From TrEMBL:
Pfam families: WD40 (PF00400). Keywords: Nucleus, Repeat, WD repeat. It comes from the Eukaryota. WD repeats lie at residues 21-62, 107-141. It comes from Rotaria magnacalcarata. This is WD repeat-containing protein 82. One of its GO terms (cellular component) is Set1C/COMPASS complex. GO terms for biological process: RNA metabolic process. Its main location: nucleus. The keyword Nucleus applies. PROSITE patterns: WD_REPEATS_2, WD_REPEATS_REGION. The keyword Acetylation does not apply. SMART domains: WD40 (SM00320).
Length: 344
């Protein structure tokens, strides 16, 4: 498994594009690797769902959701079913059987567009957040939400909440109004958060000045636990990326090398050993940072023709993927030859 490999700076610097796919006619808005790492699925603003074979480096098939649109796609229960958000008709989340392209269940309740979808490791529970300022907790077997949380605080403007599960699936974090993080125990979420903190308020004086300058224009767009569960990375629609301690909210690093003139909702990801952070930028670059020191290890120009909103590390293979309108597979390439794709 890739999680068993100790990544080094040399490893990260060796990553280069091994495969490029130009299947989509519009922006790829989400992607997700299967747990075994062998398959990747993507969703696009052109209403397509593309399935990739990561071992062979090729596309397997393309499906369409012309009626409902497709966003936030995520495998569930292996590689035969996916959950996805809707961009047309209504704001339901849908469970799709890929074989036959048939819908199994709709999850209705949100009144505005869903902006995050996270699945617990058990794959029986998932969490959604929406610009209607609510979060809903779902049992995948039941079409109605099992829990409802209001993400709007008593003061301050409304904004898109972001949420995600920790690697154990016991805790989920909710980012509210791009300033506040609340931690919930999934077993007792109805009792409210067991911890609440404002992580950016604790930055040093230089970071405070930067935060005060950008906070009114930056929205949190993505929240991700590290695979070891010790850190949370917060991506924004601005020019900064924040790394904080997961359960106290203490700031670790703030990264300000991102270009994002169009205020795209960028994402971030960790290497499987939690040692490195990867993010895309609006100027076609990917940036790789060392989590411990905050050092920028490398930045790479890509053949993407716009902001890199999607970036994910494969959980089992020594590879990651990035996407805009096209999809790129990255492998460590030594002497112009890809290194072994599968980890030991």
């Amino acid at each position: 498994m890739a999680s068993e490999i100790k990544f080094t700076q040399d490893t990260m610097k060796q990553f280069n594009v091994a495969k490029s796919f130009a299947v989509n006619k519009d922006r790829i808005n989400a992607m997700n690797f299967s747990l075994d790492g062998e398959t990747l699925v993507s969703s696009s603003d052109d209403d397509s769902i593309v399935i990739y074979d990561c071992k062979e480096g090729e596309t397997k098939r393309t499906l369409f959701s012309k009626k409902y649109g497709v966003d936030l796609i995520h495998f569930i229960h292996g590689t035969e079913q996916v959950l996805h958000g809707s961009t047309k008709v209504d704001d339901s989340v849908r469970l799709l059987q890929l074989e036959g392209n048939k819908y199994i269940r709709y999850y209705s309740g949100h009144t505005k567009r869903v902006v995050s979808l996270s699945i617990a490791p058990t794959e029986e529970t998932f969490l959604t957040s929406s610009v209607d300022n609510t979060l809903r907790l779902w049992d995948v077997r039941i079409p109605t939400a099992q829990g409802l949380l209001n993400a709007q605080t008593t003061s301050g403007p409304a904004s898109r909440p972001v949420a995600n599960f920790d690697p154990e699936g016991v805790v989920f974090a909710v980012g509210v109004q791009s300033s506040l993080i609340k931690l919930f125990d999934i077993r007792h979420f109805d009792k409210g958060p067991f911890a609440t903190f404002r992580p950016l308020d604790n930055n040093d004086s230089n970071d405070k000045q930067a935060t005060n300058t950008n906070q009114s224009i930056e929205q949190w767009t993505h929240l991700k636990f590290s695979p070891d569960g010790k850190m949370i990375c917060i991506a924004t629609n601005g020019t900064s990326l924040h790394l904080i301690e997961a359960f106290q909210g203490l700031p670790i690093h703030r990264f300000n090398d991102i270009v994002n003139d169009r205020k795209e909702p960028l994402q971030c990801c960790f290497s499987p050993d939690s040692s490195y952070i990867l993010c895309g930028s609006g100027d076609n670059r990917i940036l790789i940072y060392k989590a411990e020191s905050g050092e920028k290890v490398i930045e790479k120009q890509t053949e993407h023709n716009g902001a890199i909103q999607c970036i994910q590390f494969n959980p089992a293979f020594l590879m990651f993927a990035t996407a805009h309108n096209n999809m790129l597979f990255w492998l460590p390439i030594i002497d112009s030859q890809p290194a072994d794709e599968l980890s030991s």
